[in-house]
Amino acid sequence: MPSTTALPVLKPYVTPAQTKDNLDWAELEALDISLLKQPGGKQALANQVLNFINNNGFFYVKGHGLTDEQVNRQYAIAQAFFDLPLEEKEEYACNSAAGDFRGYKGRSTGDLAARDNDERYNIPKFTPEHERPHPQLINQHYEEIKEFSLHIHNKILLPLLRLFAYVLEIDEEYLVQVHRYEEKGLEYLRYMQYYPRSAEEDAKLGNLWSKGHTDYNTLTFLFYQPVAGLQVQQQDNTWKYVKSEPGAIIVNIADALEYLSGGFLKSTVHRVVRPPPDQADKPRLGLIYFARPEAAVKMKPVRSPLLERLGLQVPIDNLKALEGVTAEEWARARIAKDHRFRTGVVNQQETEILGGVHQKYYD
Question: Structural domains in the chain?
Answer without folding.
Answer: 30-358 (2.60.120.330)
